[in-house]
């Protein structure tokens, strides 16, 4: 039986390299004015009360509200305000997974360098 025991210490440096790709859709969003938020909330409230979009447009016009561009309300405006707000909220809430790529491990034997 042959027993060989090494007294030499080894110094190995381990280097991890990788690339992470991150996608974010909520870093910048066009500002949503207080008036736009008010109109959206009011339209949703009136829809909850059972009014259709034509009735909501009439209600807004009768109460002297204008579209965000200063026009008279049509049912299409009320529909558009709700649809655009829902799309905007969905876009801002969307989360993307991180993508990990180009993963590698490098082992560097520094035994000879560290020997004293």
As for the number of domains, it is 1
Query: How many extended strands?
Result: 2
The mean pLDDT is 87
User: Which shape, going by the Cα principal axes?
Assistant: rod-shaped
The count of helical stretches stands at 4
Strand content: 15-25%
Question: How would you write the strand order of the largest sheet?
Answer: 1-2
Calculate the terminal CA-CA distance, rounded to whole Å: 32 Å
Provide the fold topology.
Elements: E1 12-21, H1 34-48, H2 53-62, H3 75-93, E2 99-109, H4 111-114
Antiparallel strand pairs: 1-2
Characterization of this structure:
- The structure is a single chain.
- With 116 residues, the chain is an alpha+beta fold.
- It has one domain (12-114).
- The protein contains four helices and two strands, in the order E-H-H-H-E-H.
- The protein has helices at residues 34-48, 53-62, 75-93, 111-114; strands at 12-21, 99-109.
- The chain has a two-stranded antiparallel ribbon.
- Helix 1 (34-48) crosses helix 3 (75-93).
- The longest helix is centred in the C-terminal third of the chain and has 19 residues, at 75-93.
- The radius of gyration is 32 Å and the shape is rod-shaped.
- The mean pLDDT is 87.
């Amino acid at each position: 039986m042959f027993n060989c025991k090494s007294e030499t210490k080894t110094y190995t440096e381990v280097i991890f390299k990788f690339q992470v790709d991150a996608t974010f859709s909520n870093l910048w969003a066009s500002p949503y004015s207080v008036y736009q938020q008010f109109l959206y909330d009011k339209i949703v409230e009136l829809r909850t009360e059972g009014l259709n979009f034509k009735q909501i447009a009439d209600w807004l016009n009768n109460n002297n509200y204008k579209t965000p561009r200063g026009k008279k309300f049509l049912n299409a405006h009320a529909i558009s305000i709700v649809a655009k707000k829902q799309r905007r909220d969905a876009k801002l809430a969307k989360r993307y997974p991180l993508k990990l790529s180009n993963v590698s491990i490098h082992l560097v034997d520094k035994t000879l360098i560290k020997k004293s």
